[in-house]
Amino acid sequence: MIKVNEKDVAWVDGMTLATLRAQHKPDADITVYNGFPVVDDCPVTRGDRVCFIRRGEMPSAAEMRQLIVSRHSPAVYEAVCDRTVGIAGVGGLGSALAIALARLSVGRLIIADFDVVEPSNLNRQQYFCEQIGMRKVDAMKANLERINPYLDVTIVAERIDAGNITAHFAAADVLAECFDNPESKSVFVETCLAELHKPVVAVSGIAGYADADKLVCREPMRNFYLIGDGVSAAQPGCGLMAPKVGIAAHMQASKILELLLDHSTGAPK
Amino acid sequence: MNLTVNGESRTFEQPLSVHQLLTELSLNEKRVVIELNEAIVDKDSYIDTSLSDGDCLEIIQFVPGG
Fold first, then answer.
1. Does the CB of A124 have a partner CB in chain B at under 8 Å?
2. Do the Cβ atoms of A89 and B30 come within 8 Å?
3. Of A183, A186, A207, the CB nearest to B65
4. Which member of A43, A150, A165, A228 lies 3.0 to 4.6 Å from A205 by CB, making a disulfide possible if both were Cys?
């Protein structure tokens, strides 16, 4: 058996990408073979996944879900589609992280933030001018649905503290600390490690514009992953900007994907 | 008293609580996460948790920004 646009198709001897395209979507101009776009014809073997896409064509609702995940390496979608990631704060870090996880088709996101979108957020946070004044969780849920409508997004529009972390995030497989304030970062990480016993991926030291290559991910304690340079604090004269905040958020996404995959597949990294 | 703090060996003149160690190291207790011998120390117990010779601590202090 092979999958063509994520539908099962019986494998037959002599099958190639060209014979499949002629049979299933002769007008396709993009062929994605096992998560990678290819131009040349080649034989297809059992277990392969092939997606044929017509450039610019809006797929049917039934096809959309399959086509969104067609560029994932095989087994990645299956490993993440029924997993839950909790995101504490959807400001600079959390908004970019949520979008990356939505593009990965992580099945369920819990996003928490008490704040509303302000003009001063737009220098680094993934919102739009017309969303100014909206609660960040509502604006982010709307943005995520425009990217990938097949996700379950749970919103928590309240301030997160030691007393409500466990209740809101107990269902998460992995947690992401995306706050701005260091006291909130500390309380969230401590509570997750002590009460939830799930991996938590946090950030510290991402202000300014210099030395983006100094951002690293380390594991200072079991289940605790920390991204940043550890010292670049946001303060007057050294603000938060899109490049380093975005890099750190995507390093969080990368570590979270690794954690979700490590326990479920032997797929190449 | 000898402690290992973030992998580095440190010697202190007198016995310390976690709270006193943070003061000694000029760390803000509201911004840290502490592991003592691989167990997380709850913020509410910093004053009551006494350190013993040979204890191993990992201390992370967060800086603002996100």
1. no
2. no
3. A207
4. A228
Which chain A residues are closer than 8 Å to B63 by Cβ? 182, 204-205, 207, 228, 230-234
Nearest to B42 among A91, A180, A194 (CB): A194
Going through A47-198 in order, the beta strands assigned E by DSSP cover: 49-53, 84-88, 108-112, 152-156, 174-177
- CA distance to A44, A66, A218, B12, per residue, from A230 (Å): 48, 40, 10, 26
CB atoms within 10 A of CB A116: 16
Q: What is the pLDDT along chain A (269 residues), one digit of tens a residue?
A: 999 988 899 999 999 999 999 999 999 999 999 989 999 999 999 999 999 999 999 887 767 888 888 888 878 998 999 999 999 999 999 999 999 999 999 999 999 999 999 999 999 999 999 999 999 999 999 999 999 999 999 999 999 999 999 999 999 999 999 999 999 999 999 999 999 999 999 999 999 999 999 999 999 999 999 999 999 999 999 999 999 999 999 999 999 999 999 865 445 55
**Chain A interface includes B64 (CB < 8 A):** yes
Token pair 């494998």 is found at A11
**ipTM for the complex shown:** 0.97
pTM assigned to the model: 0.92
B58/A91 Cβ within 8 A: no
- Shortest CA gap B14–chain A (Å): 27
The amino acid occupying position A171 is A
Phi, psi of A108 (to 5 degrees): -135, 130
**CB of A115 less than 8 A from some CB of B:** no
Contact A206 B65 (CB under 8 A): yes
